[in-house]
Amino acid sequence: MATDILVPFFVFASIFGIVYVYLTTRNNERLALIEKGVDAKLFNSDKKYNWKNFSLSAGMFLIGIGLGIMGGAILASNTVLEQGVAYPLSIFFFAGLSLVVYFFVARKIDEK
User: Fold this and answer.
1) What does the alpha-carbon distance between residue 91 and residue 84 come to, in Å, rounded to a whole number?
2) What are phi and psi of 7, to 5 degrees?
3) How many alpha carbons fall within 13 Å on the CB side of residue 99?
4) How far is CA 84 from CA 36, 76, 81, 94, in A?
5) Whether the model pTM is above 0.90
6) Cβ-based neighbours of 71, under 8 Å, separated by 6 or more
7) Which of 24, 42, 82, 94 could disulfide-link 64, Cβ–Cβ 3.0 to 4.6 Å?
8) How far apart are the first and last CA of the chain?
9) What is the pLDDT of residues 84-99, one digit of tens each?
10) Which residues of the chain have pLDDT under 70?
11) Domains of the chain, residue spans
12) Can you give the C-alpha Rg of the chain in angstroms?
């Protein structure tokens, strides 16, 4: 009974602690650099995040997972591989393949 309450509490407390330490450390580093007289433009990167790239990567990744599930079903029914092997094998393969394809597509988009 107590584990039903304590496990989620410790999971969220750990996540909060990691984020808190990361943000305070980053803030202290920035304050130290500013005190030394370093220009504050160092913190602002010139490259803005493009949500179109995120949408493209997420879409390609999800398509890869879908193709992996379909490929796993085909492998499980047409080969001697068991379902416990065929599904994860093809899901990871197609998801990874979709991310590699995204890398080349994004690089070509950035060149334009």
Assistant:
1) 12
2) -65, -50
3) 7
4) 58, 9, 8, 16
5) no
6) 90, 91, 93, 94
7) 94
8) 58
9) 899 999 999 999 999 9
10) 1, 40, 45-49
11) 2-43, 51-111
12) 22
20: its two tokens: 């808190």
Q: Of 93, 109, 107, whose CA–CA distance to 61 is shortest? A: 93
Q: Which residue is listed with tokens 């995040």?
A: 49
Identify whether the C-beta of residue 88 lies closer than 8 Å to the C-beta of residue 69: no
Rounded to 5 degrees, φ, ψ at 76 are -70, -35
Secondary structure of the chain as H, E, C letters: CHHHHHHHHHHHHHHHHHHHHHHHHHHHHHHHHHHCCCCHHHHCCCCCCCHHHHHHHHHHHHHHHHHHHHHHHHHHHHCCCCHHHHHHHHHHHHHHHHHHHHHHHHHHHHHC
CB 64 within 8 A of CB 97: yes
Q: How far apart are CA 26 and CA 13, in angstroms?
A: 20
